[in-house]
């Protein structure tokens, strides 16, 4: 079944080169639809912040839509929409990504706008004050008032002690309030430089013409100082850690067992992705069948490998049904992890996993937006653009023995944090 599917997974052709100022460029031509994406990923995320000024990277995702020397304040979105386009941006602990989707005859407009963001941003107090309110509202909506919205932040601060992954990507509002305009301008000068960025243009393009435009708009931008990182390493976890957090927005408690795991560049991280799918990928998965269907002990259960550039977090999450205790849920999940560590998973389950990952691989390159994002990510964070075509080979080469060995290496009780995430009572 999947042989035919993979044959239909078209190889993603791309061309890459560097401008003299150090900006990396990746072009992907696909003339099947009259659409183009202009996107820039900057190698700056929450981990690059001063611990006393968290939230800067995400703040910039908003701030750099304020306006430039040639784009009037507040007009960015009007220009995009009036030309039939859409745009967005997002931030992680490791990078910040901006993109526009336009009809292909507006590719030059997209390139000009992104070059303006890089070369001529206006960072002034009115923009900082405006976006401060926007970010506060976003935090209220997505974190403070969202059920279970703070779980990841609570895990991070209790599993990382030295590395800057320990704080939330959205950061501290107190830190943003305390920051001076000069600090925002210095952050921009340090990280928003061409040699800390990759430009991806994907879709219905004429490559020769686009190269000329790129040279005209991005070529004159001066190279910045090299961004260097020397981030602290964590000491291994050697005994079970426990933490409790309270959420006023929930009625049902949650329990999460979290393990510190390697970077997504490591082969072991790919194996952990497969273990996640085995444990909780769909209704036929081990944990769902056992805890939700058969024993009716959990409302929901999930195993997930949240992997990033420097470290990952492997999390086992469950919501109890009725009076089932959090300790019982942990014990039941532990039992299934122990089985993986003790016995090889069945050939049938292993084949099912392989099929799932083949299917995911095909789907990941099914949209031009997905391809553009993958090209930027694989270049910047993995150091290998060709993973867009051959990452599936890593999964194909994983064995049942690898799954057993990686579970034994990382998923042990003495290597984890148990977080009880509880409803907040009136007296707390």
Automatic annotation (TrEMBL):
Pfam families: Peptidase_M16, Peptidase_M16_C. GO terms for biological process: proteolysis. Belongs to the peptidase M16 family. The keyword Hydrolase applies. It comes from Aquaticitalea lipolytica. One of its GO terms (molecular function) is metallopeptidase activity. It comes from the Bacteria. This is Peptidase M16. Residues 25-138 form the Peptidase M16 N-terminal domain. The lineage of its organism: Bacteria, Pseudomonadati, Bacteroidota, Flavobacteriia, Flavobacteriales. Residues 179-356 form the Peptidase M16 C-terminal domain. Keywords: Hydrolase, Metalloprotease, Protease, Zinc.
């Amino acid at each position: 079944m999947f042989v035919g599917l993979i044959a239909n997974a078209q190889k993603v052709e791309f061309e890459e080169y560097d401008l003299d100022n150090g900006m990396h460029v990746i072009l992907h031509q696909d003339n099947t639809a009259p659409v183009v994406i202009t996107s820039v990923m900057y190698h700056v995320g929450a981990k690059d912040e001063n611990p006393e000024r968290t939230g800067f990277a995400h703040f910039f995702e908003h701030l750099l839509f304020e306006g430039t020397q040639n784009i009037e304040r507040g007009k960015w979105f009007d220009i995009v929409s009036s030309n039939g386009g859409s745009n967005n941006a997002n931030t992680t602990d490791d990078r910040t990504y901006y993109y526009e989707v336009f009809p292909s005859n507006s590719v030059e407009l997209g390139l000009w706008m992104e070059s303006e963001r890089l070369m001529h941003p206006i960072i002034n107090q009115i923009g900082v004050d405006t976006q401060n309110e926007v970010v506060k509202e976003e935090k209220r909506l997505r974190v403070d008032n969202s059920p279970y919205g703070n779980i990841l932040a609570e895990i991070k601060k209790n599993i990382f002690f030295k590395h800057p992954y320990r704080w939330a990507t959205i950061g501290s509002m107190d830190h943003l309030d305390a920051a001076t305009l000069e600090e925002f301008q210095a952050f921009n000068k340090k990280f928003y430089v061409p040699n800390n960025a990759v430009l991806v243009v994907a879709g219905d393009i004429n490559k020769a013409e686009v190269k000329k435009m790129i040279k005209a708009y991005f070529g004159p931008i001066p190279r910045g100082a090299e961004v260097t990182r020397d981030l602290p390493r964590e000491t291994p976890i050697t005994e079970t850690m426990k933490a409790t957090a309270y959420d006023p927005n929930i009625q049902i408690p949650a329990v999460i067992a979290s393990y510190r795991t390697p970077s997504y560049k490591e082969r072991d991280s790919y194996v952990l992705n497969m273990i996640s799918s085995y444990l909780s990928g769909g209704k036929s998965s081990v944990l769902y069948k056992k805890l939700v269907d058969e024993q009716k002990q959990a409302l929901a259960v999930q195993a997930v490998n949240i992997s990033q550039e420097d470290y990952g977090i492997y999390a086992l999450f469950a919501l109890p049904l009725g009076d089932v205790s959090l300790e019982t849920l942990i014990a039941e999940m532990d039992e299934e992890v122990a089985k993986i560590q003790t016995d090889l998973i069945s050939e049938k389950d292993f084949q099912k996993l392989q099929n799932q990952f083949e299917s995911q691989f095909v789907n990941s390159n099914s949209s031009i937006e997905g391809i553009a994002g993958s090209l930027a990510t694989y270049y910047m964070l993995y150091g290998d653009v060709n993973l867009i075509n051959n990452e599936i080979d890593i999964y194909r080469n994983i064995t049942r023995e690898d799954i057993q060995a990686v579970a034994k290496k990382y998923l042990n009780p003495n290597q984890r944090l148990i977080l009880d995430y509880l409803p907040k009572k009136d007296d707390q």
